[in-house]
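User: Please predict structures.

Assistant: First:
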Amino acid sequence: MHIGKALAATKKDESQMIVIMGCNLYLMSIVLNGDPSIEHKGKLTCLDKQVKISQLYHCEGLLLFILKDDSRCVVWNPYLGQPRWIEPRYSHRPNVWHRFSYALGYEDKKNKSCRRHKFLRFTDSHYNAPEKQFFWYEIYDFDSDLWTTLDVTPHWRITVCNRGISLKGNTYWCAAERNVDLEEVLADRLICFRFYKEERLAVLLHHDEYNPYELNIWITTKIETEDVSWSKFVRVAKPGFDSYVPFISGSFFIEEEKKVAIGFDDENRQRVIVIGEAGYLRGLDLVGHFGDQRCKPDLCSYVPSLVEIKQPEGGEREQESE
């Protein structure tokens, strides 16, 4: 399908989202009115042949794919149909579980008319004994087509399952104190990698993920170095013993105007849940066959971007988006 045609028919109260299920990408829309609904727009492909995607990251209309059967990564603008392949200096060993984390961001150039995109890749092995700890940070510059190793000594640990969230070119992670016993680790810090700066961020807190009885979502009102202010966006509490507060799995996004949060139900990999105020809860089942369900589903809000992805000198063969 051509993503431009799908986006042209946007309805009132409709939001677009990109979903990864069964190692494939799909464009879906969700209508948030009195009776919310979800629509499967179609499957997205960015190459001549469909690749298997194990992880998805997004940054203001650009998507970063970590592939399942290939050591390379792909950054893609689905609206313009522009992919760029990135070859890492050191393989992440496809088909083998690895400990690398990723982030896509940018810094504004001096003339403010374009952005300088960068790709962060790092690994952090968490051991209590300092002599067994290992961390490696490197960054790829789209303009120079070069990797640079960063000279950093992190004081906080970021787990590999913590995907991070991109906001105005920067990436934020929940992090924990490094030299603490693994059984006592509490991710109670917010760490920012500054490709650039600015704006707002939302976080979700479950008090007990094994038997959830309360869910809170907070949104920032101010983000500065060592000074972050929050306000409560929505709270869902368990009114009784037999009631249920769902556990959102992986990423989520919010719709401020409707005051709801949207994410995957942890107990049903083909159900998207919408959570709002005053006990508002809706489950929306995704109808269809989505391939290998061993791949953990994920989603992100999607707004088309006209930002072009800079290609390396000499260019790459242009390929149309389907």
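Second:
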Amino acid sequence: QYKFRDLTIEELKNVSKTYPNFTFSMNTYTFKDGSQKDLLNFSGTVPVKYGNSYNIPIQLWILDSHPFAPPICFLKPTANMGISVGKHVDAHGRIYLPYLQNWSHPKSTVTGLIKEMIAKFEEELPLYSLSPSDAARQSELLSYIAKITEGQTDMKSRSKIADKNEGCFNKITVIGAGDLGIACVLAVAAKGVADKVILLDLSEGASKGGTMDLEIFALPNVDISKDFSASADSKVVVLTVNSLGNAQTYLDVIQSNVDLFKGIIPAISHYSQNAVILVASHPVEIMTYVSWKLSAFPKSRVIGVGANLDSERFQYILTNLLKAEMLAKDAWVVGEQGEDKVPSWTSDNLVADQMEGMAACTSREKVANRAMEALKGKGQRSWSVGLSVADLTDSILKDKRKVHSVSTLAKGCCSINSEVFLSLPCILGTSGVIEMVKLEEDPLVQEKLQSSAGSIHDLQQQLKL
């Protein structure tokens, strides 16, 4: 079953030489989605010095794509041990390390992983001794877990577990624990669109700022992880990360983001093969294109937040401030985020008479210009983009078939012949973009879109994918 059997055997020989106390076996591993697979695993203890010397019991599961995928690592506490939840260990004993996050064959090895594990455990001991009464309760719990693993529970218990798993349909992963990532988590949680929200924190070291606050106040259905496998089977994956490198030019900044995405997109594509990827990273048009190329997903399932926020604001201003509700219904902001965005329309509300139609068109343009002026200076704060992301995920997960202006592949629209992503009105559902809504034929809008497409394509051609 192992795709790279010889490489896996060679590495496990090295582990056995370094840690002779480890035992190897084949057992059934149950993934978070309930699926199962027979996997090679090994158990043993690693020596840790934390004042005194301790032998910490661990178990490592080797995936069938090893050594190109990292092991799944757990603590294996005995009945008189309790798990000390920290920055590298969760309440279930799952171990999270930078080494796992940055796993890359051939430089990453199991022995190297164990060395880092020991080093991190010496900074923060992952286990503690239980009192006799606590140990008894722990023993009872471990016994029950063992029965579940071995299939010895009754059918009623199995049914309850199955029902619980089947109820958790809508899972969203937000990648990036900066202000924008946390804003997205809070907005999605507040809107109640998901059964489970995973915040994937790719930063090194201890939890900081908002991430720590999320852990402290423990929002229902929100989990924080550093392991890509926690994102498995997400319906929507939201990308909010941006590189904080020392790039000097705009092209360098974008290339730095591309390099960052090279380590992210393949992983999320592996764990959530049917997800819709929603990009909020900057520049959104180019990073959506990069996500599409790196994921090899169909174009319908890779979209950017684009001008969704601007469009919602534009329609709100037309309706509530300028009292032009009839115009607002078909009004959109399209094109490229920033100064080059442009207002457009998806249907012609003009009257049949040509003279009256020209007058109505002139009036509409004046109202649109006033609305665009009102949009200036509003800015896009993290929380406002987070609300926009929650709005988009709501339409996707609930299959609302609602129209949004999002970054989508624009090739073939408005005489654009290059593979670029621009904001255009699209109907969204569970499979992402269901249909692109046709814009009115406005020469000025088409010229603006073609100009944006040309400049974006020129930048893309200079990137190293």
